[in-house]
Amino acid sequence: MRPLRICIYGGTDLQGMPTHFVASLTDEILTALPAVIVTGGFKHSNDRPLAVSTDAAALEGARRFAARRGVDVRTCFEAWIPEPTLDSRPDVGGAVRMNEADGVTVRVMKGRTPLGRRLAMVAGVDLVVTISGRRHTEVVVEQAIELGLPVLPIPDAGGDSRDLLGKHRDRIAAGFAPGALDACLHEVAQSIDADPRAAARATVDLIRSARIGRCLVLMPFDAVHDQLYAASIEPAIARYMHPLRLDRLARSDAIYGSFGDAIRSATAVVVDVTQLNENVMYEIGFAHALGLKPLIYARDAARLEQLPLYLRTLNVRLASAQTPVGDLVEDYLRTFTAAGQVRAA
């Protein structure tokens, strides 16, 4: 199972309390969860080279964690940066981004402007936390809400995060367990100045309550499969994760440029091989190459006998009247809950 991708996004000029909180939050997330921190890799602006950005504060926390655990920061911290030739930030006099020399994993979003990178970054993670921020933070929060991702704007550092929490509070709260958002924000408000680590731990407790993860469903696009998806598969997935089917994703051309982008962002994959074809073979192989273990099912017993030998040794199941596909999907996704990666809604 791949680690959770948690995006920390926000202001380019943090001061005092927010800086310590962001570093503590990153450290606590990595300590408590199988996670990778994703940021935009913003080190500082040309206008204010000494200002501490949200991304730089998060990197400080990741380095603390890595030093304590004796691991490489590259395994737990990623900078997703725009195409360098398209990386124009006139609002801050130009951005200086993180690079490999900073000891982090750098992912260059080829062909993406800063705006395109923000949209793709949100689409590629499991949960978003924002701190302060101006202008662009609104795009990130509203994109997460649109995609049904859990998102947490921390209000205590002000900026757009505070305003966006007030604007979308009900929809944001719905991404977490009932009452969990209010409890978290109360604790953060009480302790963020005196004890940033306690505030960070409260935030991690909230993250634990989120319905995290995407389950990508690979099946034919026709009326029969549409009915099966709507009646059985989508409801079963929605109890544990966010269902994702490429032809149903709003604005899929802008968010998922390819099948590869979609599967890289998936926590789980369900594959219908009742109608076996070359595309399915490629998709299953791609998933396994990324370390995913798909649920592969057929609604025809004879089809299972026709599968290539190497596929028969994988997680292959027969969907039948006795064992409906919805039950197979729930059994599969419960393994992620047992591993602590997602919460049953």
What do these coordinates show?
- The chain is an alpha/beta fold and 345 residues long.
- It is 45% helix and 17% strand.
- The chain has two domains: 4-208, Rossmann fold; 214-338, Rossmann fold, CATH 3.40.50.2300.
- The model is unreliable at 250-257 (pLDDT under 50).
Jot down its keywords:
345 residues, alpha/beta, Rossmann fold, six-stranded parallel beta sheet, five-stranded parallel beta sheet, 14 helices
Question: What would CATH call the architecture of the largest domain?
Answer: 3-Layer(aba) Sandwich
* Overall mean confidence score, pLDDT: 86
Percent of residues in helices? 40-55%
Q: Can you write the helix and strand succession as a string?
A: EHEEHEEEHEHEHHHEHEHHEHEHHEH
Strand order of the largest sheet: 6-4-2-1-7-8
Low-confidence stretches: 250-257
Describe the sheet with the most strands. 6 strands, parallel
- Indicate the multimeric state: single chain
**CATH class term of the largest domain:** Alpha Beta
Can you tell me the overall shape? globular
Structural class: alpha/beta
